[in-house]
Amino acid sequence: MHTTDSRVLVAELATVLEGRIDDLAAAMSRTTYENIEFYRAAVVGPEDLHASMRLNVGYILRHLTDPASSSVDLDGPTSTGRRRAQQNAPLPEVLRAYRLGFQYLWDQLLGEARQVGGEAPDALLDAASHIWGLADVYSSALTDAYRQACAERMVETDRRRSALVGELIDGPSLSTDTVWEIARMLDIPFQGTFLVVTAAGLSSGEPPLPGLDHRLGILGIASAWRALRGSETGVLSCPPRLPVDQALDAVRAVATSPVGISPVYDRLDQTNRALRYAQVAAESLPVGAPAVRQLEDTPFTELVMNNLESTQRAVRRVLGGVLSLPEEDRTTLLATARAWLEAHGSAAEAGRALYCHQNTVRYRMHRLEEFLRGSLDDPKIVAELSMALDAVGTFPMLLDR
Fold this sequence. Notes:
The protein is of the alpha+beta class. The chain is 65% helix and 9% strand. A hairpin with a 2-residue loop joins β2 (222-228) and β3.
């Protein structure tokens, strides 16, 4: 039979089915509920499913009733795909419902063709490849629309979460109620075990912490991030019994740039303060180097952080002469001074720690004393030296500021 003649006969069959489209949609809905458990869970209600079935079978039948039509209207599957994505319906189940619907429509066309008799059954068989080709075209359109809607939702979700994280880390004056609400929307607790992580971006545009979300997920660590040009900052919420070191190890495993981590804190309204620790930790690392640093939450650390300029001036007053020496000499004297202080002034103990003779330690300390504002027999001078060494040890950038 000629293809055109077959399309004409199939158009007549489709016209008959158009007359009972509501019954077809109702039967397709029942078939879907009977065969797919997801639809019985009331996520997609009966009225919603019936309307979707009617919409889609209507588009198919209208196409089949026009023998000369070469275009396919995809508004039906596109609308269905977007709606099901917004309802969080699993794509495989949605496609299965579509296949069941096509199968039912084919059975109805075949039954009508047999009832009409004559050349109608052969005409339908001749058009079978075209009809089942429509099923593929419709399913592809539905899939594309579903995935696009999911991608849009992900972008919108990321934007909302990023804005919430921004409020959290930039808002030291947020009320407790506001932080509780932010915690609820981010799906993390108000009280728990938290860390702030901030990472500098790479000039190539690569993410500074690639694959971190996967590693955190394995550990059961929830996270929320704000991405800015040149950096990423996130709040990690660790499970109660998870050792925090595992979170730090996860960050170290993927770091591709300087990464600062705050001390552990236990209330989400302390995030802004924790961010400052993470930022200073990142700033203390060499530029561009993949390294991770976490500062301790001590009174001295907080004191220095709150006034780095004053601390820098104090360091210059105590160690100014030493800092002007060539790097090798400076490094040697500072390392010897640290060992001497840790050994409580014992040259012998310091020598063992430095793998050198105690007389070498004494010589270096006498040389260091020449740059100080007094003798190391003076407790005040020792205290100043200890403060300055702690400051540059915690904040190496003070040496270069």
